[in-house]
Structure formats: structure tokens, C-alpha cells
Amino acid sequence: MRKHALHLPSGDSDVIGLVEKGMLRKVGDEPVRIYYGTFLPYMIDADARATVTSTMIGFPEKDPTEEEHHWLVQNRPAWVVPLEEHMSGKLGKKSRLRPLDR
User: Where in the chain are the domains?
Assistant: First the structure.
């Protein structure tokens, strides 16, 4: 897997929409399956990375405050919790997924 790739659920409507809009691109075909579905590696497209800023999508530019962090946790997609459980080993110890950097 590429260094900056994220495993995302390939059937999720938001992921599909971001791929269709050219914001994300699939960078591999090796799936990771957990009970939420099939996750494939994606990267933010280089043009999108150069154009889109954190503030454009409503994210803090620097480390989030406690309030911003709480809002982000409360408003993340439903598939994030199963992914975190999988990465922490609750669903299997042989995960190829790595925890997100904080």
C-alpha cells in the first residue's frame, strides 16, 4: 500500500461520489474485508490536494481544539468505528491496516 493511501469502503456512497468527482482515486486492488464491507486503498487526487484546503471542507487548519475534535468524532461516517475496531485488533490480529496518525 502506498504511504499516503487510506483504506476506504468501496461501496460507500460518499466514497463513490468523491471518486466520481475526481477527489479520490483508487491506488490498488487488494481488498481488506471487515464486517462493514470491502475496503480498498484510495488517495486524494494530486490536483485536489493542491486545490482543496482544510477550511474549504470545514476542518480546522491546525490541531483541532477539544470542541472541534468532539464535533469531528460525532460527525464521522458510520464505517469509521468498525474500521477502528478492526485496526485495534478487536476483529482480528492479522490486520494489514495501520492506525491513523494523530
Answer: 6-87
